[in-house]
Amino acid sequence: MTWNAGTARAHEALRDINLEVRPGEFVVLLGPSGCGKSTLLYLVAGLEAYNLGTLEAFGAAVSGPSPDRSLIFQQTSLLPWLSVWQNVTFGLALRGEPVEARRAAAKEALSRVGLSDAMDKRPDELSGGMRQRVAVARSLTMRPRVLLMDEPFAALDVQTRAKMQDFLLDVWRSSGASVLFVTHGIEEAVALADRVVVVTARPGRIKAIVPVDMPRPRDPFSREAERLRAELTGLLRDEVDRAFAEQEAFA
Ligand SMILES: Nc1ncnc2c1ncn2[C@@H]1O[C@H](COP(=O)(O)OP(=O)(O)O)[C@@H](O)[C@H]1O
Ligand SMILES: [Mg+2]
């Protein structure tokens, strides 16, 4: 994938990406900043057009966004003038669903993220962690088969992030959806993934795919968790150095 292909500003973001996410699988993309992780998610979400290769979701070529594939960003984009429940069912409103059905859907989705009491609040009355849960609830109302998450917890404090990870694992298990989760955090990858895809510095290629064979709930202090963090740290080190050198060269 090359941004601005065919122009003087052509900029190759991804190369030779060959990856298949299985139904119900939790895959984490781990790589240094600028390696193309977000680019890959936008392509899968159908928000950007790819200019090389093929991309399929459930057997059909990806040609644009679909409610099947729901993207959640680091900074949630809740509409401040709408209540929480109206935000949660914004997609359903665009589909023309009647208000009673929307309120019922919001109620169900908000109870799944532990925010039943927040139905009628405004986004600015919520903490950062609560806003991210509202964003997840909003995704769930569309019943996606794939959740695409771009560093969704990066802006949260450590304790809230750990809670959000547990909560996400619950939602994931009960939804049966696949998750493609982007992070640059090694601990987060070990806490969440069935498989960690380590991406090289730009142009992002797959450096290694590391299966995480640990039962859930996971003990972050177990020897296996420690071993995996060491392995991923080793894989990532050179890539972080290379990414850094490139960004210095631009400065
Ligand atoms: N809309 C865009 N237009 C041009 N270049 C972009 C665009 N978005 C990202 N890039 C470039 O593509 C590369 C990968 O970016 P990105 O996917 O955001 O990386 P990451 O999410 O891994 O930090 C970077 O060099 C970035 O500058
Ligand atoms: Mg990014």
TrEMBL record:
Keyword Glycoprotein: no
Keywords, alphabetical: ATP-binding, Nucleotide-binding, Transport
Presence of the UniProt keyword Glycosyltransferase in the record: no
MF terms in GO: ATP binding
SUPFAM superfamilies: P-loop containing nucleoside triphosphate hydrolases
Domain annotation ABC transporter: ranges: 2-226
Listed InterPro entries: AAA+_ATPase (IPR003593), ABC_transporter-like_ATP-bd (IPR003439), ABC_transporter-like_CS (IPR017871), ABC_transporter_ATP-bind (IPR050166), P-loop_NTPase (IPR027417)
Family stated for the protein in its record: Belongs to the ABC transporter superfamily.
Protein name (Swiss-Prot/TrEMBL): ABC transporter ATP-binding protein
